[in-house]
Amino acid sequence: MFKELTNRQLVAIVMLAISNLCSTVVVSCIGPIYPGEAKRRGMSEAQIGLVFGLFQLVMFISAPLLGKYMHVIGSKWMCIAGLQIASLAAIAFGTLNWIHDGFHFFWASLFIRFIEALGEACFLTASLAIKFDPFPFYGFMETVAGFGFTVGPLIGGVLYDNFGGFQMPFFVLGTLLLAATIPAYFLIDEVKDDFSEDPLGMFGMLKIPSLWLMVFAVVLCAISLSFLDPILSGHLQSFGFTHTKTGLMFFLCDGSYCLTATLWGVLLDRWNCNNFLMFFGSSATIVSLVLFGVVEKRLEWICISLAILGIASGALYIPSFQQCLDVVKKRGYDDSFQTYGCVSGLIQSSYALGGFMGPTVLGGWGCQKFGLRSIVLSIVVINLIFIFALLSFLTAKRFCTATTYFVDEAHSSIIIKESSRNSLETL
Prior knowledge:
This is Major facilitator superfamily (MFS) profile domain-containing protein. It is found in: Membrane. The chain has one domain (2-190, 200-399): Growth Hormone, Chain: A (Up-down Bundle), CATH 1.20.1250. The radius of gyration is 23 Å and the shape is globular. The chain has helices at residues 7-28, 34-40, 45-68, 70-73, 75-94, 102-132, 138-162, 167-187, 201-205, 209-226, 232-235, 243-271, 274-293, 299-330, 337-370, 372-399, 421-425; strands at 403-408, 413-418. The protein has a two-stranded antiparallel sheet with strand order 1-2. Strand 1 (403-408) and strand 2 (413-418) form a beta hairpin. The chain contains 17 helices and two strands.
């Protein structure tokens, strides 16, 4: 696969990979280090959760719009602008350590995260579409991004404890992102796509019933993972963990996701078991949550629960993403840049909605008001609702596949026709 590429394309792939890695690391590295800094300035868990969740709220609102109008802005310029905005915002976030007043620290955190989220939305939405057109390396880039989310908290904890404190991760990664804009200008070609006013469009996608089930799965996956962001470091305080050890606990969850993601992809390619994997993912998520926040608090249970949660999240998310692409193509969408832009924007927006609800409504405000155990049980209930919806959809699909008999008068024979199977496959 790499042998077919020119040197220029190989360098472009490396540049995009490094940019994906740095952008995901800088987003995820705050997990073990920001809550402690915020609490020392008198911020509540609800405020900390809002800082985490605002990033995803902005992604939720902006990603589908950017995907829809990417053909107007241009994928190349959207990608470069996103890199510049995200990198400068990351560097600015590192200066928050110099603000000692809790009120100003909170509002400055919100403002910078808002700007950073806009940059990330531009870069990620554009890079997804760019990767589909010149080179078929979506899986490779997603692996890089997943690795960034995996090692981000660990890198943040190590740099905080050993190499300069709070500002160091943001200065280093922000500078790398800013430097990536220079080769991006020369290496990324504008994707050529003949735009037409497709009557289907993104809003047409939302009329596909089974697409909402996929959106539910993506939102649920994001909620189950992200509600830990503002609370995990505090939950581990009783064990005397350093920021590095806390980062390792985040790594345990994200690492198990990253290691098993390829396995789920192989299973999907070989057996096309989308629905089974989603059922398994949601069921395993329930087990992990019970071990984390319902049973007696013990370190070994927490470790096991985080590992299971990472595995379960991959089983829930990966088939959902692939099935969304398959469904829209079956419903008449072209295999085009415009379609990929809409789908990538929709998927990112769905994940961002869950990523906002997780740390803000549940992990932050919810845990502060109702306690960890109640919030964990509420997420368990949401997973049970998803399982019920999935099984109901599969049952309806099975029983609605009617067999219609009609008489061919010319040949005096009975012909069996499965009339609704094709239509149901496009649900």
